[in-house]
Amino acid sequence: MDELNRIPKNITVIQPRRVIKDYAVGIYARVSTNRKEQMESLAIQVSGLTRLVAVHRTWFVADIFLDVASAKTGTSRTEFNRMISECEKGNIDIIITKSISRFGRDIQECLEAIRKIRAAGKRIIFERDKIDTEAIGDELIISVIEACEQSENEWRSENIRWVLKRKAENGTSGLYNRPCYGYKKDKYGMLVIDDEQAKVVRDIFNWYLEGCSIGGIIKRLETNGIKSPKGKERWSKKGIESTLTRQKYTGDVAIADSGSSDNRYLNENHHAGIISKETFEAVQLEMKSRSNVEVAEDGTVRRKSKKYSSKIPK
Questions:
Q1: Residue 275 in domain
Q2: What is the CA radius of gyration of the chain?
Q3: Distances (CA, A) of 28 to 64, 90, 215, 235
């Protein structure tokens, strides 16, 4: 008791500080090819996951593992294997990746990697799938992976539609350069006029504006020995109508939105036109006026009595 009384009264007791652990995070991302759009996707994956790490005060990016490897081939995944090794060495505490589909090429590989990383006392977070291996057991992981595999095809289809939409919007869609009768592709894959076929296209438009019927145009083409776009001796009525309504002959290209049948994207002056826009519009008006169906003021649908020549123009 006397010993205690001799302790100075001015001693300040310092409480032990709570140790806050910083977690080393490894980011894993993968794409299938080194094409430009795929590399852009890789950058987007890493950027998004880096922002996710930044939200947590005790997390820091210790390493980034990037693979360019197809899920369908036996391509070596050097970074994937290095990631597992770094976890086993204790250099990484948490692995963050976009999704299960980006992590393993199949269920077996995915499960094997997850078990190795968990055996090392580390965790994996699949950002898009909202899965944290620290919170679930192996059995549930298998069920989740199988469910994700089933939904992956649906997600991939949506992703493909998004890419097609984006390409249509920025004018890089390959559909803009799809050749039709009257055009061919140059060595750069761009549309150029096929002079011989272009003359036939111009004749078809001109004959129609001169009053020739679809049947008359077919008769003249076959009389002159001109083969159809499919290389056949005979031309079809549908083929002529398709030619007369193809906007591409003006140099403009319109393609449909992959997600909607109502939306269309128009790329004006995309290539050299075979006919003028004025000629094209004149033909559309003429086709409308020649329609053998009209609606009366009372709503009655009836056929017109107009007739057009099937004689060969001279």
A1: yes
A2: 34
A3: 6, 17, 64, 58
